[in-house]
Design brief:
This protein is of the alpha/beta class and about 270 residues long. The chain is built from 10 helices and 9 strands. The protein binds zinc ion.
Length: about 270
């Protein structure tokens, strides 16, 4: 009898320790990474504060996603702000050469412009995932709830008309999310896809080396990486083959956001 109790006690201890370990790991994972040391010192506290706020918000709202919780060596590369006529096609070339699938968060305003039709079609034909980044990239925190809803709905409608299907995912511009944005997204049954690795290519002074190091030195299973596919992002184009080569060598497989979340079991 005593032996049985000790055995059960031992089993409960093992279960408790393994659960504690798992939740610590998940909590650690749900933060945004990417070295800020190359940035202007005035920018660093602002980005750090943003990352801390998002870490708290994801605990509160299940429709806000930074990454997937998985031990599998999978990662989702995501490209924002396109399509454009210069950089997006170069990114597509690199992805095609390396047989990599990625996700493009596109702006409704650009999706409807005639000069972007071919490049948008190429994204779709190459089986990349194309998701909405809203209509024209306003900062939602400076807008009313009605304006936020209008940007989200018109961006989604423009994309849906082009690709013929609705997606439950979108990325708010600048990752600028607050309680009001969450409410609008909930109302439309949308999930906000943020990121767990910031390549920091949005910063004009980021070189290809800084961008690739930010991804390579921080990558973990289930990460969502933010990169940009718009004019002036030549350093991003130079960094991309380095990122892909290194992550492949580490054993990573590239998946779209939807695939990543299916692996995670979130959907
Ligand atoms: Zn953007």
């Amino acid at each position: 009898m005593v032996g049985l109790c000790i055995k059960r006690l031992f089993l409960y201890c093992v279960l408790f320790l393994s659960c504690s370990f798992t939740s610590c790991k998940a909590a650690n994972k749900k933060s945004i990474r990417g070295s800020l040391s190359s940035l202007d010192s005035s920018l660093q506290p602002r980005i750090t504060a943003y990352r801390e706020r998002m870490r708290d918000l994801v605990k509160q709202y299940p429709n806000l996603i930074l990454c997937a919780e998985t031990d599998k060596l999978v990662v989702a590369l995501t490209f924002d702000d396109g399509p454009d006529t210069i950089i997006t096609s170069q990114i597509l070339d690199i992805l095609e050469e390396n047989k990599v699938k990625a996700t493009f968060f596109v702006l409704g305003e650009r999706v409807v412009q005639p000069q972007h039709q071919r490049i948008l079609e190429r994204c779709i034909q190459n089986n990349h995932e194309v998701l909405s980044h809203g209509w024209n990239h306003p900062r939602y925190s400076t807008k009313t709830e009605v304006e936020i809803e209008h940007d989200i709905v018109t961006g989604e409608a423009a994309l849906q008309e082009k690709i013929g299907k609705h997606s439950p995912y979108m990325r708010p511009p600048y990752g600028d999310v607050d309680d009001r944005v969450i409410n609008v997204l909930r109302k439309h049954e949308l999930q906000a896809i943020l990121w767990s690795i910031d390549s920091l290519d949005s910063n004009a002074s980021s070189s290809a080396e800084i961008i690739s190091d930010n991804v390579i030195n921080n990558v973990m299973p289930g990460d969502i990486v933010i990169i940009h596919s718009r004019e002036t992002k030549e350093p991003t184009v130079a960094a991309l083959p380095i990122i892909i080569k290194n992550l492949c060598e580490q054993g990573y497989r590239f998946v779209t956001v939807s695939e990543l979340l299916r692996i995670d079991g979130t959907v």
